[in-house]
Design a protein that fits this description.
This protein is of the alpha/beta class. It folds into 3 domains: about 180 residues, Rossmann fold, CATH 3.40.50; about 160 residues, Rossmann fold (3-Layer(aba) Sandwich), CATH 3.40.50.12780; about 100 residues, GMP Synthetase, Chain A, domain 3 (2-Layer Sandwich), CATH 3.30.300. Helices cover about 30% and strands about 25% of the residues. The longest helix is centred in the N-terminal third of the chain and has 17 residues. Its EC number is 6.2.1.44.
């Protein structure tokens, strides 16, 4: 028997491609008079911002940018980069935000691998781009952002403001929500960075899901700290447009500028890596806590509980989230439970350091034992790999079908992160699987050892990796960056750890040095693993 439901079809009236461009249309229509952008002396409404975006898109099309073209952008967080999160998708092009702290070799590699047709560059970063062009052996057309706050060099390309003077085009949604919207490269903590393709559908759902999970009210005042080259600023540019909020820029994410902007502009929300939160806690000292509290999202590495304690005392309401470049950013959250209210600050911070449960827009996040293919029990000790399924998972790796197939084996996206699941269903990362230290048959979580080291008052940053050992196979080796003026011996730190950890988990060696970090503040453990192998 044929059901009458089957006769009903998708039409333009009831099926519209999902795209964050619809948030721009909404902001222009509903929030036109509200402030969209604050940067130095610049104040622009949503009406002005939307008009500029539509003009820049038309200007880019006038330069020959067409659907499916990759356009790379090398810029700090400034209003132009925010506008490009809408202007480039409006042209049908694919936005490739380049990490501004990469070395010229990697930028050259990405420009080549991404098949970039055009580079939009902030003039302060022209020297970096020029070196990349030299290594590439060719130049690409450029458009230059001329920021009066940071004059730089010119390659003679047209300016961004010239594009903004073009007659504006209308806001048109893509024909297919599966069209690529962005091409983001992994941070390259292991080998060559991979190109991760985002689609319009995922970008739309990420913004909706983030707003719901973070419980963001209308008209937030959002401080731009998360680099927009990092998962497109975790999707927050699109989220703020949806809610008619205000984007505040400081250009440089220095602690004094961030704290001044929070006080001056009434900032309500921002996102930042744990290393930035630590920097803010140190800069703030014993100042009175912010009132009302400021909502902060942190991700990038599991935050040491000691940092969460300090930021809570500052009046920061920090929610830890977890995600990857391949999942458009955050896909799980450590949602606060009322039962935690009566615990001590230290106990609360320990719980807040968990990676938590799936965001509302993610269909499934689970921890699977790869050997059995089954979810691990909720016992807080059995380790498996975090696997994800949902609409905010990448289309795939650009020009790499083998890596794509491997990442999507058995119908899951495999994160490469080892985790346990607690009784309350909250996940907690124990390690990148390649970072687990197996000593005498015992698994040691480097994250657990690092959390103890961060509690020592002399420690600024810490990373623990495996060091080969004749008897135990491998043992923990700590690389530690000390605070300015702090003095402590390796023996002191090892003793400090031994009083707080099982003896086999305490580091067997401590090396003092400035730690190598990616541009997003992640410590590059692969470099430290290589170093540890060479140690006697």
């Amino acid at each position: 028997m044929r059901h009458h439901f089957e006769a009903l079809q998708k039409t333009r009236a009831n099926h519209v491609p999902l795209s964050p461009l619809s948030f721009l249309r909404r902001a222009e229509s509903l929030h036109g008079t509200r402030t969209a952008v604050i940067y130095g002396d610049i104040r622009r409404s949503w009406a002005e911002t939307a008009a500029r975006i539509r003009s820049v898109a038309a200007g880019l099309m006038g330069l020959g940018v067409a659907k499916g073209d990759t356009v790379s952008v090398l810029s700090p967080n400034v209003p132009e980069l925010f506008e490009l999160h809408f202007a480039l998708p409006l042209t049908g092009a694919v936005m490739n935000t380049l990490n501004t702290r990469l070395e010229p070799e990697t930028i050259a590699y990405i420009l080549d691998h991404a098949d970039s047709k055009l580079v939009i560059v902030d003039r302060e970063l022209v020297p970096l781009l020029s070196k990349a062009f030299d290594l590439l052996g060719r130049t690409l057309p450029v458009v230059e952002i001329a920021d009066p706050a940071a004059p730089g060099e010119s390659l003679g390309g047209p300016t961004y403001e010239a594009l903004a003077d073009t007659a504006p085009m209308p806001i048109l949604l893509p024909e297919d929500e599966w069209d690529a919207i962005a091409l983001n490269y992994t941070s390259g903590t292991s080998g060559r960075p991979k190109g991760v393709v985002y689609h319009h559908r995922g970008a739309y759902l990420m913004a909706l899901g983030a707003g719901t999970a973070w419980q963001v009210p209308p008209y937030p005042v959002y401080l731009s700290v998360v680099p927009m080259f990092h998962c497109n600023g975790w999707g927050h540019p699109w989220l703020v447009a949806m809610l008619g909020g205000t984007f505040v820029f400081t250009r440089i994410p220095a602690a004094n500028r961030i704290l001044e902007a929070i006080r001056t502009h009434g900032v309500t929300h921002f996102g930042a890596a744990p290393i930035v939160l630590q920097m803010l806690a140190e800069a703030e000292g014993n100042a009175a806590p912010f009132e009302p509290s400021i909502r902060v999202m942190t991700a990038g590495a599991p935050p040491p509980p000691s940092v969460l304690e300090k930021t809570r005392a500052m009046g920061f309401d920090v929610m830890q989230v977890y995600g990857l470049t391949e999942t458009f950013g955050h896909i799980s959250q450590c949602l606060w439970q009322e039962a935690w209210d009566d615990l001590s600050p230290a106990e609360q911070a320990e719980l807040q350091a968990q990676q938590g449960i799936a965001f509302p827009m993610v269909e499934e996040v689970t921890v699977i034992d790869r050997a059995s293919g089954q979810p691990v029990p909720r016992d807080g000790t059995t380790q498996g790999e975090i696997a994800i399924r949902g609409n905010t998972v990448m289309s795939g790796y650009y020009k790499d079908p083998e890596a794509t197939a491997k990442a999507f084996e058995d119908g899951w996206f495999w994160s490469g992160d080892g985790a346990v699941v607690h009784e309350n269903a909250y996940m907690q990362i124990r390690d990148r699987l390649k970072d687990v230290i197996i000593s005498g048959g015992e698994n040691i979580s480097s994250v657990e050892v690092e959390a103890v080291l961060y509690r020592h008052p002399a420690v600024q940053a810490a990373a623990v990796v495996a060091k080969p050992h004749e008897k135990w196979g491998e043992v923990p080796c700590a690389f530690v960056e000390l605070r300015d003026g702090a003095e402590v011996t390796a023996e002191d730190l090892i003793a400090f750890c031994r009083t707080r950890l099982a003896g086999f988990k305490a580091p067997k060696a401590v090396i003092f040095e400035t730690l190598p970090k990616t541009s997003t503040g992640k410590i590059q453990k692969f470099q430290l693993r290589d170093r540890a192998k060479e140690l006697e």
